[in-house]
Write a structure and sequence with these properties.
alpha+beta, Glutaredoxin, Glutathione S-transferase Yfyf (Class Pi), Chain A, domain 2, 4-stranded mixed β-sheet, globular
Length: about 200
């Protein structure tokens, strides 16, 4: 019997979140290895020297170490909610690049010389554009969640957590509703289950 793929993951990482959600919704069996980013396992670094999560190691030794690629791989195996049919690369790319740029400089302001509030304002403008997309639909692709929703929302969730009171008063209402629905979903709850830290052995 072929062994299941192995996923190296860190619970709070937004990239790992979206990969886990796609794997769960696909129904694919996999081995979850919860790690600490400050103490990366040798086996993970051997598979993916760049040292970031998520990392998926397939039974044949193939390594997939980009979260969007893991999502696509899982959904190509099984896509019961038809996420791939409505996948839109443009908004996902914008949030992976531009929004993430502003998010980092807002959330981790001490690491950068920039004004965090200017980056918060720039990210907020992107949320207003997202809000317009959600004016007549529950999700970005319509009535049901899809690839873009799951790919984008972990970063919006992270943004909302920097200053929840400010987000609650200033973020556009459709985005708040969309974020709340995804965060309250059973799928997200399953993806965020606290797991015992995986301990590497020499066996």
């Amino acid at each position: 019997m072929q062994r299941p793929p192995v996923l190296y993951s860190f619970r709070r990482c937004p990239y790992a979140m979206r990969a886990r959600m796609a794997l769960i919704v696909s129904g694919l069996d996999y081995e979850h290895r919860e790690i600490l980013l400050r103490d990366k396992p040798v086996s993970m670094l051997a598979a993916s020297p760049k040292g970031t999560v998520p990392v998926l190691v397939l039974a044949d030794g193939e390594v997939i170490d980009e979260s969007l690629d893991i999502m696509r791989w899982a959904l190509e195996w099984s896509d019961p909610e038809e996420w791939l049919a409505g996948a839109e690369p443009a908004p996902v790319a914008d949030y992976d690049s531009v929004f993430k740029h502003h998010l980092d400089r807002y959330k981790y302001a001490a690491r950068y010389a920039d004004d965090p509030l200017s980056h918060r304002a720039a990210a907020l403008q992107m949320l207003f554009r997202l809000n317009a997309r959600l004016a007549d639909e529950k999700f970005l692709g319509g009535a049901a969640r899809g690839f873009a929703d799951i790919a984008i929302f972990p970063f919006v969730r992270q943004f909302s957590g920097v200053d929840p009171a400010w987000f609650g008063s200033e973020a556009p209402s459709n985005v708040q509703r969309w974020l709340a629905a995804l965060t309250a979903s059973e799928l997200f709850e399953r993806a965020m289950v606290r797991r015992t830290l995986w301990i590497e052995t020499n066996d």
